[in-house]
Amino acid sequence: MPLTPHPDVAVVVLAAGAGTRMKSATPKMLHTVAGRSMLGHAVHAACGIRPDHVVVVTGHGKDLVDAALDELKPRMDKDYGVGSIDTVVQKQQNGTGDAVACALQSAALADFTGTIVVTTSDVPLLGAEVLAALLAEHSAKPRAGVTVLTTMVDDPHGYGRIVRTADGEVTRIVEEKDADEETRTIREINSGVYAFDAALLADAVGQLDTNNAQGEFYLTDVIGIARASDRIVRAHRLADPALVAGVNDRVQLAEANRQFNRRLREMHMKNGVTMTDPDSVFIDCDVEIANDVLLEPNCQLKGSTSIATGCVIGPDTMLENMTVGEGASVVRTHGFDSVIGAHADVGPFTYIRPGTQLGDNGKLGGFVETKKAVIGRGSKVPHLTYVGDATIGEESNIGASSVFVNYDGVNKHHTTIGSHVRTGSDTMFIAPVTVGDGVYSGAGTVIKDDVPAGALTVSSAKQRIIEGWVENKRPGTPAADAAARARTGSATPGTDSDK
Ligand code: UD1
Ligand code: MG
């Protein structure tokens, strides 16, 4: 549910940093938490409060970040009615203060006079509700000049510390690298998220310098500057530190994923989903699961997967961008970009590749692989079969060990099978080929030519039997010995009758 709009608010998302501690060719903010990039989480939170403007500061890995933003834009419009996201480039990453200075020069913010929320692209659990709460605190009378989002943590290492006077007033923020021993013992930390009066921010950013341990323009110094000019500085302290945990390295990335996942699982369980072993279940943030679904151990539900009510998923199942209909059973299955119909039965050991549509009450059994296959209502592919580039009608049964031979080495071709077809085991469908309604085929048939409705097709040669061949041609082998014993009626060594 989108929150109420926040007019006169602009959100600046800082996303220009190199993220060197990730040691990655991928910019830090494009690493994912619960299946969404950290940039995506930041932009969802920013757009979620429905502000007047959203400005993203890019720099390091700009092309990749721009492409990721372009992908996010339609969804921001659809979900939150935010039709435009501006970007501004910070050419050199001279610190968070410099990044904000760049944002203030953007067309969107040059004449902006409202409240500017600054957030970062490395706090993936931060949602729009927290930004809304920060803004509520900021606007409480008398209205603050700056409100910083803080929290208490057991291990404050790496974070800026919130320094307060004896009576609790926030006076400044001191970065880890600039802090003395005593300041380092402070457990209240800066989340890196703030609300600023726009005019105050522009003025204070102009006063920043690089006289600090990292030689950077620190946005955190704005707090001290505001305070020195007697502006109201407030802190909004969050009870739950995980919501603002920053991700700077891959240990923190794993922890953010763990936390996010635990919360998602709890949300789904509270919505009526049963999990036999919740700790072994991983669910991306856009996955939808109806009530009365049972998730057995070791399941991963990714991307835009949706599971309708009454399904049993798992154990050991990975589904990505899959739509699963009501009451289906999907066991030990890998599935991508496909649809499983209501009350269908899939697995174990089934590989569903993109473009599969299994109809209601359909079946894909053990060691079956499908790709671009539309399989009609009630049709079954029970065992050891590949179905690629095919259309199968309703209530048909594909015999065990069959292959839809779709590839001639250069091009892919289509196979069309009608309804109520019964094909024998080990049938090869050499595409392009069409098999009419109600057709039967014998075991081992190679179907190269179209088969008209109602026909039986067989292609295997007449069976030959050459008596005594093994004893004649393979003398001295265990097989020849067994054949000799069978012929003479003597006992097999090692069996009960031998004793
Ligand atoms: C920052 C804060 C620290 C706070 C912590 C919370 C400063 C000086 N310190 O430290 O007080 O506790 O966040 O997680 O602000 N960025 C740019 N351009 C730059 C530098 C950074 O856009 O030149 C962006 C990064 O992409 C990132 C964000 O700003 O999204 C924060 O940068 P980061 O290097 O992670 O700062 P921290 O050391 O975590
Ligand atoms: Mg950080």
UniProtKB/TrEMBL annotation:
<dbReference type="InterPro" id="IPR038009">
    <property type="entry name" value="GlmU_C_LbH"/>
</dbReference>
<dbReference type="GO" id="GO:0005737">
    <property type="term" value="C:cytoplasm"/>
</dbReference>
<feature type="binding site">
    <location>
        <position position="371"/>
    </location>
    <ligand>
        <name>UDP-N-acetyl-alpha-D-glucosamine</name>
    </ligand>
</feature>
<dbReference type="GO" id="GO:0000902">
    <property type="term" value="P:cell morphogenesis"/>
</dbReference>
<dbReference type="InterPro" id="IPR050065">
    <property type="entry name" value="GlmU-like"/>
</dbReference>
<feature type="active site" description="Proton acceptor">
    <location>
        <position position="383"/>
    </location>
</feature>
<feature type="binding site">
    <location>
        <position position="248"/>
    </location>
    <ligand>
        <name>Mg(2+)</name>
    </ligand>
</feature>
<feature type="region of interest" description="Pyrophosphorylase">
    <location>
        <begin position="1"/>
        <end position="250"/>
    </location>
</feature>
<feature type="region of interest" description="N-acetyltransferase">
    <location>
        <begin position="272"/>
        <end position="499"/>
    </location>
</feature>
<keyword id="KW-0961">Cell wall biogenesis/degradation</keyword>
<keyword id="KW-0548">Nucleotidyltransferase</keyword>
<feature type="region of interest" description="Disordered">
    <location>
        <begin position="470"/>
        <end position="499"/>
    </location>
</feature>
<protein>
    <recommendedName>
        <fullName>Bifunctional protein GlmU</fullName>
        <ecNumber>2.7.7.23</ecNumber>
        <ecNumber>2.3.1.157</ecNumber>
    </recommendedName>
</protein>
<dbReference type="InterPro" id="IPR029044">
    <property type="entry name" value="Nucleotide-diphossugar_trans"/>
</dbReference>
<feature type="region of interest" description="Linker">
    <location>
        <begin position="251"/>
        <end position="271"/>
    </location>
</feature>
<comment type="similarity">
    <text>In the N-terminal section; belongs to the N-acetylglucosamine-1-phosphate uridyltransferase family.</text>
</comment>
<dbReference type="Pfam" id="PF12804">
    <property type="entry name" value="NTP_transf_3"/>
</dbReference>
<comment type="similarity">
    <text>In the C-terminal section; belongs to the transferase hexapeptide repeat family.</text>
</comment>
<dbReference type="GO" id="GO:0006048">
    <property type="term" value="P:UDP-N-acetylglucosamine biosynthetic process"/>
</dbReference>
<keyword id="KW-0963">Cytoplasm</keyword>
<keyword id="KW-0511">Multifunctional enzyme</keyword>
<keyword id="KW-0573">Peptidoglycan synthesis</keyword>
<dbReference type="InterPro" id="IPR011004">
    <property type="entry name" value="Trimer_LpxA-like_sf"/>
</dbReference>
<dbReference type="GO" id="GO:0016020">
    <property type="term" value="C:membrane"/>
</dbReference>
<dbReference type="GO" id="GO:0003977">
    <property type="term" value="F:UDP-N-acetylglucosamine diphosphorylase activity"/>
</dbReference>
<feature type="binding site">
    <location>
        <position position="443"/>
    </location>
    <ligand>
        <name>acetyl-CoA</name>
    </ligand>
</feature>
<feature type="binding site">
    <location>
        <position position="90"/>
    </location>
    <ligand>
        <name>UDP-N-acetyl-alpha-D-glucosamine</name>
    </ligand>
</feature>
<dbReference type="InterPro" id="IPR005882">
    <property type="entry name" value="Bifunctional_GlmU"/>
</dbReference>
<feature type="binding site">
    <location>
        <position position="425"/>
    </location>
    <ligand>
        <name>acetyl-CoA</name>
    </ligand>
</feature>
<keyword id="KW-0677">Repeat</keyword>
<dbReference type="GO" id="GO:0009252">
    <property type="term" value="P:peptidoglycan biosynthetic process"/>
</dbReference>
<feature type="binding site">
    <location>
        <begin position="95"/>
        <end position="96"/>
    </location>
    <ligand>
        <name>UDP-N-acetyl-alpha-D-glucosamine</name>
    </ligand>
</feature>
<dbReference type="InterPro" id="IPR025877">
    <property type="entry name" value="MobA-like_NTP_Trfase"/>
</dbReference>
<feature type="domain" description="MobA-like NTP transferase">
    <location>
        <begin position="11"/>
        <end position="146"/>
    </location>
</feature>
<dbReference type="GO" id="GO:0009245">
    <property type="term" value="P:lipid A biosynthetic process"/>
</dbReference>
<feature type="binding site">
    <location>
        <position position="248"/>
    </location>
    <ligand>
        <name>UDP-N-acetyl-alpha-D-glucosamine</name>
    </ligand>
</feature>
<feature type="binding site">
    <location>
        <position position="386"/>
    </location>
    <ligand>
        <name>UDP-N-acetyl-alpha-D-glucosamine</name>
    </ligand>
</feature>
<feature type="binding site">
    <location>
        <position position="353"/>
    </location>
    <ligand>
        <name>UDP-N-acetyl-alpha-D-glucosamine</name>
    </ligand>
</feature>
<feature type="binding site">
    <location>
        <position position="160"/>
    </location>
    <ligand>
        <name>UDP-N-acetyl-alpha-D-glucosamine</name>
    </ligand>
</feature>
<feature type="binding site">
    <location>
        <position position="122"/>
    </location>
    <ligand>
        <name>Mg(2+)</name>
    </ligand>
</feature>
<dbReference type="GO" id="GO:0071555">
    <property type="term" value="P:cell wall organization"/>
</dbReference>
<feature type="binding site">
    <location>
        <begin position="14"/>
        <end position="17"/>
    </location>
    <ligand>
        <name>UDP-N-acetyl-alpha-D-glucosamine</name>
    </ligand>
</feature>
